[in-house]
Amino acid sequence: MYYIKVKETEIEEFRKQEADMDNCIFCKIIDGSIPSVKVYEDDDFKVIMDIAPAAKGHVLVLPKKHCADLLTIDKDVASKALIVASKIANAQKKALNCDGINLLQNTGEAAWQSVFHLHIHLIPRFKDDGVCVPWEHVQYAEGEAEEYAAKIRACL
Length: 156
Hints:
It is built from four helices and five strands, in the order ααβββαββα. It is of the alpha+beta class.
C-alpha cells in the first residue's frame, strides 16, 4: 500500500470539487437531465450551443468526464479536446462563413470561469461584429518578460 502526503487544503479542494460534480450543470447537460441544443457528440465530448452567446453560432466543447479546469484535465482528454475544437471550428467556418473564430478557455474565477467543469468556447467572429474580449494590454519593463519566462520554465 502506498501513502501520499498531501496538505489538508488539497484534501478540502478535492472534496469541494468532488461535491461540485453532483451539482455540475454541465454534467447534467451531458447526461441529458438538463436539455441543450447539441451540435456534436462522441464518446468523450459533447458540443452544445451556448445559452448566453457572445455571437450567434457560439458553442461550448464539454468533456464528458468531469474535471474542474485546465489544471486538472486528463492528458488524453486534453489532446482530444483540441481535435474536437478544430473539427467544430471548421464546421462553423463553413456553415456560418465567419471571418474568424475565437477559442477561449477560462480557468479560475479570476479568469472569468463561472462553471467549474472545463469547457472551451468557440466563438464565430465577423469583421466589425462588436464582440470584444475584455482585457487591456500591459507592458513589461526592461527584462521583465525574461523574468516571468524563467519563473514559468522553473516549474515545468
